[in-house]
Design goal:
- By secondary structure, this protein is α+β, with helices and mostly antiparallel strands.
- It folds into 2 domains: about 90 residues, Immunoglobulin-like (Sandwich), CATH 2.60.40.1120; about 50 residues, no CATH class.
- The protein is about 20% helix and about 40% strand.
- The protein is built from 4 helices and 10 strands.
- Strands 3-2-5-6 form a 4-stranded antiparallel sheet. Strands 4-1-7 form a 3-stranded mixed sheet, with no helix packed on it.
- A hairpin with a 2-residue loop joins strand 5 and strand 6.
- The longest helix has 14 residues.
- The protein is extended, with a radius of gyration of 23 Å.
């Protein structure tokens, strides 16, 4: 029985393939680089600069960006041939910046005056993703992931709010 689990796990790990995003000068992994497709959907690299190409099933072009690096666009069929994506550092010189403080009272007065402008009066959709993990004795006990969409009619109307679960899983 242990051999069967090992074989299934081994075959499953062969299918998983991830790329890595590295700094072209230091050769260090780039954490939390943004990776998006032409529809604006995307992911980020993890703490060691890795991401999975499996996320971009229906994409043609993939853009890699990070605040400290030059953007890079790669066609998806070329991406599957590369394990490493190299980003070049991008240095931005800033002019002198002046910082002025405001009292808490001034901030509250401004916030109260801005309430009419900040209330959304038009209907809108909001898409989101929720992940919850539970650990027992330092080991993963449960993982719940849900992608959802909400619809709000606006005008601060609690009856005009709807939510829909698009996809969910629990392990």
């Amino acid at each position: 029985m242990k051999k069967i689990y090992f074989i299934v796990f081994f075959l499953g790990s062969i299918h998983l393939h991830s790329q890595i995003v590295l700094d072209s000068m230091t050769r260090e992994p780039i954490q939390f680089a943004h990776i998006t497709d032409e529809k604006g959907q995307g992911t980020t690299t993890n703490e060691v600069g890795k991401f999975s190409i499996d996320y971009f099933v229906e994409s043609n072009n993939i853009e890699f960006s990070h605040l400290a690096y030059r953007k890079k666009n790669i066609k998806k069929n070329n991406l599957s041939k590369k394990d490493t994506i190299w980003l070049s550092p991008y240095i931005i010189s800033l002019e002198e910046v002046f910082v002025r403080g405001e009292t808490a009272k001034d901030i509250i007065i401004k916030a109260i005056k801005s309430i009419p402008q900040n209330i959304i009066s038009n209907p809108f959709n909001l898409y989101g993703f929720y992940r919850e993990s539970v650990q027992e004795d330092g080991k993963g006990a449960m993982l719940t992931e849900v992608s959802f969409m909400t619809y709000n009619e606006g005008d601060n109307n609690p009856q005009g709010y709807q939510a829909e679960i698009i996809q969910g899983r629990r392990t």
